[in-house]
Structures are given as C-alpha cells and as structure tokens.
Amino acid sequence: MLLLKTLFLFALTAVAEIVGCYLPYLWLKAGKSAWLLLPAAASLALFAWLLTLHPTAAGRIYAAYGGVYIGVAIVWLWLVDGIKPSGWDLLGAGVAILGMAIIMFAPRSA
Question: Is 110 part of any domain?
C-alpha cells in the first residue's frame, strides 16, 4: 500500500510541476494568454505542497521524485505533445524509476 501511495503522490506532484511549467511555455512560445500564468502559479504552489506530504527526509524525497518526474514527462510527451517516445526515452525513464525505487524503498536503520 505504501508503494502505491508513494507512486501516486509522486505522479500527482509531477503533473502539478509539469502543468506549472507548461502553461508559461504556452504563453511565451505559443502566443497564448498571459492569464495562463495564474493557474501556472497555483499549480507550482500545489507541487511544492505535495512534496511536503511524504513521510521521509526532504533530500531523499527530492532525489527520488526526480525519477518519477522523468517518467511522467515522457508520458506527457506522448499524450500532450503528441510525440511517441523512442525506445531510448522509455529505457531512460525506466532507469530513472528504478533509481527512485532504490532510493525510496531500500531498507534503512533510520
């Protein structure tokens, strides 16, 4: 159960971060409305808050979160940007997620 909760929370955190960065990208690169900066700021605030919900050391959370972020970004590439990930993209994301699992779920004394 802890595994599923952790992965879900990381994935939700990654989506909040990606949305918070993608909306300003749309404003700057695609000529969309500057009003997109308001939900972008809210999304980045949500991202920061979600990182605080994990029950372990902040440094470990940030390190492990990076692996999940990579995986979610590859899914974003496919679903939102419409670019099918290459085998190398998928391999890299898999390695990053494996790294996250090692960091988060390795046995520890403290």
Answer: no
